[in-house]
Task: structure prediction
Amino acid sequence: MKLDGVVRERARHFIEQFKDRGSCEFVKDFAINFPITIFLDLIGLPQDRLPQFLEWETAILHGTSMEARITSIRAVKELLLEAIEDRRKNPGEDLISRALTLKVDGRPWTDDEVFGHCFNLYIGGLDTVTSNMSLHFYHLATHPDDQQTMRTNNNAANVIAVEELLRAYAAVTTNRICSKQYELDGQTFLPGDFISMSTPLAGRDPEAYDAPNEVRLNRKPTHVTLGHGIHRCLGQHLARRELQIAIEEFVKVVPQFQIEPGYQVPFFLGNIIHVPTLPLTW
Result:
């Protein structure tokens, strides 16, 4: 409940900056700053380095230059190793400090396991909620009836509505490495093959959902947008809370909004689908 209050206050802080302006560039003004500043607090990384962190994250997940990707991965590794070493000497309540106390099968995590965990947190914390949020607000801006429903819903109904938005606008495609030969629909997968697990396609599967391309905010869907089983997203509960609070606090003070007239919204298609810019007006 304490974190819930922090998240809601942070959302209000950023919305306050533009609510009376009549417009915003939603991604830059809100979708980046709101969830990522919360994540940096949780992991214990400095807020004033946010632009640099985003530059590395963009190069790793969205860039087209392999050289820039490698350089950014090395920079993130150096950053995290320094932070891990600092937390060994000066432990706190942040997620890196807590990772150093974890055990598996009765033994402490190895240095590689701690680093891998922290790297996963870094990549997930700096991108996925922002990407999902931009897609959700794109939908609400282009579907005024659904936007109005979110304005009048109670809290419980909004929980269900966010699940439907997550199903319909899954952002992340993850990769797996085939461990043994396998055949599926006449296709043979060999050990070492990379397999893309497309949650965006799974969320629109006509065998799993009636009229899958329709967004029904009261659908109550079961989905794999946030992973499944041992691969379920570690931050799923925070992500859900941030997405719901973002919508609730936005519609509370911003009147009916839409895409800036004449603007063609760009979509980045790749491992993580997102909207890089989303100008809204009201």
About this structure: Residues 2-281 form a domain with the Cytochrome p450 fold (CATH 1.10.630.10). The chain has twelve helices and nine strands. Residues 160 and 220 are 6 Å apart (CA to CA).
